[in-house]
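User: For my dataset I need records formatted as: sequence, then structure tokens, nothing else. Please produce one.
Assistant:
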Amino acid sequence: MNHLESILPAHGRRICVAPMLDWTDRHCRFFHRQFSRHAWLYTEMVTTGALLHGDVARHLAFNEAEHPVALQLGGSEPAELARAARLAADWGYDEVNLNCGCPSERVQRGAFGACLMAEPGLVADGVKAMRDAVTLPVTVKHRIGIDHGEDYGFVRDFVGVVAAAGCATFIVHARNAILKGLSPKQNREIPPLRYEYAYRLKRDFPDLEIIVNGGIQTLDQAAEHLQRVDGVMLGREAYQNPTILRGVDQRFYGSTAPAMNDAEIEAVLIAYCEDAHRRGTPLNAIVRHVLGWHRGAPGARNWRRILSDTPRLTRGDFTLFDDARAALRTMQANFTTFGEHAESSSQV
């Protein structure tokens, strides 16, 4: 039995956290893992060039606690993709994912990302090369179309060609990618969501694993999608409000283990920060990922303010965690007291 079989029930990708450039680095993924043992985590996109000609350890090192974790690759040349996939296997990743959805002009200049959807044969060659090189699952993340085309047949044919090369899992960002005129941020918001395209893919390819991505903000929404597809990928909501991941294991994986509470997560996080800081990691590189932890709760603004104190972060002042926690707890206590007082007054 491999390590995945020992920790994962069937359908491990029922809930995933999307690859997000500049966000889902190793520190972010470690933090997210404290909320869910089973959600599938993805790295930021790493280009084949960065791996084959750069600092491999900087891009691929991760904490064992992050499993299950997938490496997302950006590239289009089959031989280079195969070499990068072998590196992923050597470093212990659980999946290799090919990015066919990023619309940025920089990525287009490298002839990969969303523009690859116009070349399904090339994507199929890349998938085959990676599958020949490793035993890891090779998956593809893509959009439903390019620019303003709305023909479902475009994405259906893309999936059909790539599936014939051996790809069994497709992560469908249910928006078009507008290659000219929109920024990456606008491409995540302006093109309309068409979840029905992902549902149709599942109906047309029932043997494939289809995961839907885009605009999903609650676990109730995830549950609705899971009635029609195999998995759901959460993006910005998981980063900006990581507590959405709390309860995932119990609701979607049948776990009977209690979720970690805030105090337990804080203790793990502080120990992680102390160890990483001793190894030379700037404190801000980790803390920036936890600013949204208590979003919407009383005291969240003070939590963010204290943990954003640049001078204290720079000098590695770990007492800022104590101050942030104290400010949060004080505001919550005041809020509770005020609420109880207001309720008592209304009953007089």
